[in-house]
Specification:
About 5% of the residues lie in helices and about 45% in strands. It contains one helix and ten strands, in the order βββββββββαβ. The longest helix has 7 residues. The protein starts with a strand and ends with a strand.
């Protein structure tokens, strides 16, 4: 998944349902939050300017256990409401990078995001376009579970 200008997003796949589609209203301040929730959209602040990150999405029926064994450098939690049950992966250039199929429409989802490789991608992205160094795990489960 492409990261441009330190950012990417997950948002309702039908962007006509998103009041401010990515990257509108994006918090562009140094040290911005790792994870920022908007109406039907989640913005991610990457440690690298331009690179290819790895994104794994998991959909659970109830809150998943906290993952062990991996040294996460950043973690955050949020909620997102999805009307159609699919989120698109969005880049700053507006190029879609795939989708996350949640499997249930009209659902409020809790989201836990964990990230590793941040320090390394910050160092490498200054002189190159790293691939797969920064890794995201995004876990979804229904808020009513």
């Amino acid at each position: 998944m492409s990261v441009e200008f330190h950012a990417f997003a997950l948002q309702e796949e039908d962007d006509m349902e998103v009041p401010a589609p990515f990257p509108e209203e994006r918090a562009e301040v140094p040290g911005a939050d790792f994870l920022t929730a908007y109406d039907k959209r989640l913005d991610f602040e990457s440690a690298g300017h331009t690179h290819e990150a790895a994104l794994t999405a998991e959909v659970w029926s109830s809150e998943p256990p906290v993952t062990g064994g991996v040294r996460w450098e950043a973690q955050g939690e949020a909620e997102i409401f999805s009307i159609i049950g699919n989120l698109s992966v969005e880049t700053m250039s507006g190029v879609g990078e795939g989708r996350v199929e949640l499997g249930r429409p009209d659902t409020l989802w809790k989201v836990r995001v964990s990230c590793s490789g941040r320090a390394e991608v910050a160092r490498l992205a200054v002189v190159d376009v790293p691939v797969g160094v920064e890794r995201y795990l995004v876990q979804f489960w229904p808020a009513s579970s």
